[in-house]
Design a protein that fits this description.
single chain; alpha/beta; Rossmann fold; ten-stranded mixed beta sheet; two-stranded antiparallel sheet; 32% helix; globular
Length: 203
């Protein structure tokens, strides 16, 4: 399994930050949002020739999909496709109760946030990643004199996780596996001990 093409569902600052690194590393990126491709042409142009504006259907057919929408919009995204079997999704969401502005906490206990997301994308292979840091830090060069910026991730499919780690290393981040979706997701989700934290891997 390799993640050559990357689709985004949502194209805000977090998705753009990951997309910019991916384009520089030679990936093809398909950007989508709820407003349609025409609203994303300028962003795609800024990211470079590897990026293009796409429909939702085109984006979710990529090798891996970045889910970067407000938490409350996840059920709507799930219903747009219905069956997510065979698709690998990176869950960038955080459990904010409201999104404009982001505030409050959407409590979905006893589930973790990513378990709740997984249930709303039936059949999906889900990896929790890229949600624990601020977008402006994600957008910066992850290589520093002191070390390499860490990307924590968690999931239940080891093959997909290996492909993710390879992709992340290729865009110059340092992947750190936190284990299965339940335990690792709980560490990263909003309010968890790794939420909003910035780490460098010393090398």
């Amino acid at each position: 399994m390799k993640f050559g093409t990357i689709g985004t569902v949502g194209a805000g600052s977090a998705a753009q930050a990951v997309a910019a690194h991916a384009v520089r590393a030679g990936h093809r990126v398909l950007l989508s949002n709820s407003r349609g491709p025409e609203s994303l042409c300028a962003i795609a142009d800024d990211l470079g020739p590897g990026a293009s504006a796409a429909t939702f259907e085109q984006a979710v057919d990529a090798d891996v999909v970045l889910l970067a929408v407000p938490f409350g919009q996840v059920p709507t995204v799930g219903r747009r496709l219905g069956n997510w079997t065979g698709r690998v999704v990176l869950d960038l969401t955080n459990q904010f109760a409201e999104s404009n502005p982001y505030r409050g906490y959407a409590d979905v206990a006893p589930l973790t946030g990513s378990e709740w997301v997984e249930q709303r994308l039936p059949g999906v292979t889900l990896i929790k990643a890229f949600n624990a840091m601020f977008a402006r830090l994600m957008a910066a060069d992850p290589r520093h004199a002191e070390g390499t910026q860490v990307v924590f991730y968690a999931g239940d499919d080891e093959t997909a996780k290996l492909a993710f780690a390879h992709m992340v290393t290729g865009v110059s981040f340092a992947p750190v596996d936190l284990g299965r979706l339940r335990e690792g997701g709980a560490l990263m989700q909003l309010g968890g001990p790794l939420s909003g934290k910035y780490f460098l891997l010393q090398q």
